[in-house]
Specification:
Blueprint: E1 2-9, E2 13-21, E3 27-36, H1 46-60, E4 68-75, E5 79-87, E6 90-93, E7 98-101, E8 110-118, H2 119-122, E9 130-135, H3 141-154, E10 156-162, H4 167-172, E11 180-181, E12 195-200, H5 213-220, H6 224-237, E13 242-247, E14 253-256, E15 262-267, E16 271-275, H7 280-290, E17 293-298, H8 303-319, E18 327-340, E19 349-362, H9 368-379, E20 382-388, H10 389-397, E21 407-412, E22 416-422, E23 428-434, H11 437-447, H12 453-461, E24 464-469, E25 472-475, E26 480-482, E27 495-498, E28 503-505, H13 512-538, E29 550-553, H14 562-571, E30 577-579, H15 591-601
Parallel strand pairs: 1-4, 4-20, 8-9, 9-10, 10-11, 21-29, 29-30
Antiparallel strand pairs: 1-2, 2-3, 5-19, 6-14, 7-13, 8-12, 12-13, 15-16, 15-17, 18-19, 21-22, 22-23, 24-25, 24-27, 25-26, 27-28
The structure holds adenosine-5'-diphosphate and magnesium ion (MG).
Length: 602
């Protein structure tokens, strides 16, 4: 009787499976473990993670690594994925003339027009004009309200802009109510004496005058040419609770298209060139036309050139490959990036069109022998490199109840989406495509403007809820959950991510619906499109309908909605797909490691 281990080293995760073989040669599965991969896949830095995973799994059966007779590591697919993104248009707003933002608590509602002045200047002015009043931080709400109440008897003040977070406190003390915007950080940068408009939306609404170019045109009597110039401003106001628009005489705004650049895709037989600003669809069409791809280049001096260079440089570093790094597949996705507005007064951003790209590099051959040698030296256990990743994954997937040969798998990982078909004769056809879990996290992070990868990863993995009172939340599926103990007041009114352990507040002003929409559409763009792309390439005669049933494996198959989206799409082609359940106990995890043990027995 002996103990054996199977080890799968992935871009993100290292998984092991432990079994024993009895004297009759029968295999029994005993335990498993998974840890984050240490270092770049295919390098000796992986050994630390492997040893750790082996210890965890052996510990579960009260044994140690010394009890192992053999460790089988797979001939890992030599693919490494990376992602990058760039804007393809840019709005430049000079002479900063706008503030559109979402303070938590503006006060009042409506529109106020007038010349904008600090509160202390107004009494020196004539009273035949309308004014908008600025209140700097050093004046507190009581003092401000007293002064305003006196001024408003003589002057027509139509709106108030406050630097601190005291809109509501001030509003409550006013005799005459006007719209108030607060939390305007750089109030001192506002050009004094200019004509301005303040808009505050009623509760539960977003502004609708300043976010409409014709709305701005009617307020300022703009002609058609001038109206064209305010379009980017209106655009960046869309969705705001409040906005301030100041017309400076020299102020100008222009939307400048940066040279997004051209992508050259080299196929084995064809070469295609495609302008990146035509969008992801055209880029992917070009990729399909030239497939199989042997390399991709971006026009130098343009955004796409910069992106491709960055990816190649990164891959070069990772692989330590002295040859030139060649990109073997890309996935392009249309997206939006919030870009800081130049000269912004309250941290405003404008949403710009962008393209996200995941690229995949095939290295010659991963030096698995180095890993095997080091692992063998460190553990004293015989280490064998055995089996091709796609075959092992298919074998492992076959332990899912309800499956049989021929079987197709979709391995939804971090850096790549892999697909394989294994038939009764044991032949395997497989592909590796760029774009997987990491790309989704990156797109969620940028499209929602989070600047926080951990939060983006959590938004990807867990459903949302809105904390409606200190004792109840409404989940995204509309269910309501009640609590006996009050929730933290910090969560009140917030959209939160419901992880198994905690509620994590999302501290920007996006609605729950918006976040859900972005999350779902990104998952759709990456995995559903990639599933079709991958399966079309391995399907017998290129026909999807010739594909037997499909088992989803890999970390991203754990996702709470991706398997449903893929099932929905594939069912249009009369294909059944579903999340794997390796050995009827691992869910979609551990397929390769399990296959490594099965192939030993077989
Ligand atoms: P690899 O085989 O390349 O090491 P994995 O199969 O471990 O990759 O998949 C890693 C990916 O799976 C990561 O992008 C990670 O975000 C994603 N992932 C892991 N758990 C979950 C989950 N519960 N829901 C959604 N995605 C997940
Ligand atoms: Mg994997």
């Amino acid at each position: 009787m002996k103990y054996i281990a199977g080890v799968d080293i992935g871009n993100s995760t290292t998984e092991v499976c432990i079994g024993h073989i009895n004297d009759k040669g029968m295999l029994k599965f005993l335990s498993s473990a998974s840890v984050d991969t240490t270092g770049t896949k295919g390098t000796t830095a992986n050994v630390a993670g492997i040893k750790n995973a082996l210890n965890i799994a052996m510990n579960k059966i009260n044994k140690t690594s010394n009890d192992l007779s053999v460790i089988r590591i797979n001939e890992a697919a030599p693919v490494i994925g990376d992602t990058a993104m760039e804007t393809i248009t840019e709005t430049i707003i000079t002479e900063s003339t706008m503030i559109g933002h979402n303070p938590d608590t503006p006060a009042g509602a409506g529109i106020g027009k007038g010349y904008i002045y600090p509160i202390d200047d107004i009494e020196k002015l004539s009273n035949n004009k309308q004014y908008i009043c600025l209140i700097p931080k050093h004046i507190n709400y009581e003092e401000a309200a007293n002064k305003l109440n006196i001024l408003m008897k003589k002057y027509e003040i139509t709106a108030i802009v406050i630097q601190s977070d005291e809109a509501v406190l001030t509003y409550n003390r006013l005799d005459k109510k006007v719209p108030i915007v607060d939390e305007v950080k750089y109030i001192d940068k506002i050009p004094i004496g200019m004509k301005a408009v303040v808009e505050v939306a009623p509760q539960g609404h977003t502004i609708n005058k300043l976010s409409n170019p014709y709305g701005i045109a009617s307020i300022f009597n703009l002609n058609a040419d001038e109206t064209k110039y305010v379009v980017p401003i209106a655009k960046s106001f869309v969705g705001s609770r409040s906005a301030i628009f100041i017309r400076t005489p020299k102020g100008s705004v222009k939307e400048q298209a940066i040279k997004a650049g051209e992508l050259t895709i080299y196929g084995e037989k064809l070469i295609e060139k495609v302008q990146i600003d035509l969008g992801a669809k055209e880029v992917m069409k070009a990729c399909n036309n030239v497939s199989p791809i042997i390399d991709v280049e971006g026009e130098s001096g343009t955004n796409i050139g910069k992106m491709i260079d960055e990816i190649k440089k990164n891959m070069h570093k990772l692989t330590g490959n002295s040859n030139n790094v060649k990109i073997r597949d890309i996935l392009a996705v249309d997206t939006m990036i919030p870009v800081d507005v130049k000269g912004a007064l309250a941290g405003e951003v404008s949403m710009e069109n962008a393209v996200g790209i995941a690229a995949m590099v095939k290295t010659e051959h991963l030096p698995m022998e180095n890993i095997a040698n080091m692992l063998q030296k460190d553990t004293g256990v015989y280490v064998k490199i055995a089996g091709v990743e796609a075959v092992m994954a298919s074998l492992g997937a076959l332990t899912t109840p309800g499956t049989k040969l021929p079987i197709a798998i979709l391995d939804l990982g971090g850096g790549s989406t892999d697909a394989a078909i294994l038939d009764e004769s044991g032949t395997v056809k497989s592909v590796h495509l760029a774009g997987a879990g990491q790309l989704i996290t990156m797109l969620i992070n940028t499209e929602l403007g989070l600047r926080d990868f951990t939060l983006a990863e959590n938004i990807k993995r867990h459903p949302l809820a809105k904390v409606e009172s200190l004792f109840h939340i409404r989940m995204e599926n509309k269910e309501i959950n009640f609590y006996g103990e009050p929730l933290s007041p910090k969560l009140f009114g917030k959209v939160v991510v419901l992880t198994d352990k905690a509620m994590i507040p999302i501290n920007n002003n996006l609605t729950m619906e918006k976040i859900i929409e972005v999350r779902k559409s990104i998952k759709q763009k990456v995995f559903v499109d990639n599933a079709i792309r991958a399966l079309t390439q391995i399907a017998p005669n290129g026909q999807l309908r010739n594909i037997p049933n499909i088992v989803l494996v890999g970390g991203s198959a754990l996702d709470f909605e991706i398997p449903d989206m893929i099932l929905h799409e594939l069912s249009k082609h009369k294909i059944v797909s579903g999340r794997g359940n390796i050995r009827n106990c691992e869910g979609p995890r551990n397929a390769v490691a399990t296959g490594l043990l099965m192939s030993y027995k077989g």
